[in-house]
Amino acid sequence: MIPKYKMIVNALLEQIVSLPPNAKLPSEKVLMERFQVSKRTVRRAIDELILYGKVHRVKDVGVFTVDRKLFKPFDVFTGFTGEVEAMGGKVKNVLLEFDLIEADASLSKILGVEQGDAVYKLVRLRLKDEQPLILDESYFPKALVPLSESVVSGSIYAYMQKVLKLKPERAVQQIKAVFTPDKYLEHLMIKKNTPVLSVEMTGYLQDGRVFEYSKSYKNTENYELVIASS
To answer: What is the pLDDT of residues 94-103, one digit of tens each?
Structure first.
């Protein structure tokens, strides 16, 4: 006898064939009622579909059919590596710049450091499955988040939590449509005067200290923000 979760998988696979990319699947509650199963069984079925690469889950939003775009719920604070890996993608970071600079008046105010304090500036091209998605220009206070080239080539947030025992808790983000600076066009593989999403972000730890300030340019051909209202 076929397991119940497999019945759900097969039924949803048939449904997905006729759905467009980014279509939202029925909620867990609806599936529980339709198949008369537990939440655990439904989640096991969805997990298998994710493993097959047929759908992806957006936390607090729902489950969607796959597309080449990377989805990020705007009200969820997650690092790029976590976003991509949650969708079963392969992360690649190309380090374009990694310097130690002195905080100017603007950075000292944003990061909560003294003017002249050491701050890391890094520029990274972020790719999912070799597709350029984001160009990040980030700043970290050296005293709070000591970095190295090997660290910034991977997941900085994972390093912060596992090695430094620091926990990013929240972020203030401002989003707008802009034209990408000319120096980043080639890296994002977009043409001049093509609008992109620009997100200016200030990240905070649990104790309220600012650990990062960044400006990101997101290729809208491959990246999409999802904004969920409660």
So the answer is: 999 999 999 9
Name residue, tokens 């802009």: 178
**Distance between CA atoms of residues 136 and 154, nearest Å:** 13
Phi-psi region of 80 (alpha: psi -120 to 50; beta: other; left: phi over 0): alpha
Residue recorded with tokens 């009200």: 75
Site of tokens 């990020």: 72
d(CA 88, CA 204): 27
SS3 of residue 167 by DSSP: coil
The string of pLDDT tens digits covering residues 37-58 is 999 999 999 988 887 778 888 8
Q: Name every residue whose Cβ is closer than 8 Å to that of residue 200 and which is 6 or more positions away in sequence.
A: 173, 174, 214, 215, 216
How is domain 70-226 classified at the CATH fold level?
A: Chorismate lyase (3.40.1410)
> At the top level of CATH, which class does the domain 4-65 belong to?
mainly alpha
Per DSSP, 10 falls in state H
Sheet holding 91-102, edge to edge: 91-102, 118-128, 131-141, 210-218, 195-205, 168-179
Domain ranges (residues) in the chain: 4-65, 70-226
Do you know the residue count of the chain? 230
pTM: 0.63
